[in-house]
Design goal:
This protein has about 120 residues and is of the alpha/beta class. About 20% of the residues lie in helices and about 40% in strands. It has 2 helices and 8 strands. It has a 4-stranded mixed beta sheet, with helices on one face. It has a 4-stranded mixed beta sheet with strand order 5-8-7-6, with helices on one face. The mean pLDDT is about 95.
Amino acid sequence: MDHVGINVTDLQRSADWYQKVMGFTIFHKWQTTWMIKRGDMHIGLFLRPSAKKIDDIDNTMAITHFAYATDAKGFQEAQDRLTKLGVKFDPPVDTGVAHSIFFYDPDGYQLEITSFY
């Protein structure tokens, strides 16, 4: 996969958050779309200032979250970094194949950091 695109209400706020929290940098800016990247991962940020959140994500056809894989050391480092930045996340969950934490970006998109064992 080359990239995913998400609608955001504020390009600068989203780009800043993804840089600070997830290590993404701005790759290219168009008038109402910015592409951010981290290594080979890209996210298209599409400006939609009047966009409304989905009321019931579990009963709507939509992408529910984005997951980022890491190893056990990176999993702990991610939790330490999120704590340091004041980003609230759910306690680690053992899914039976991995440990995962979940948290949200400024527009309410759920992100997951997972470490398979």
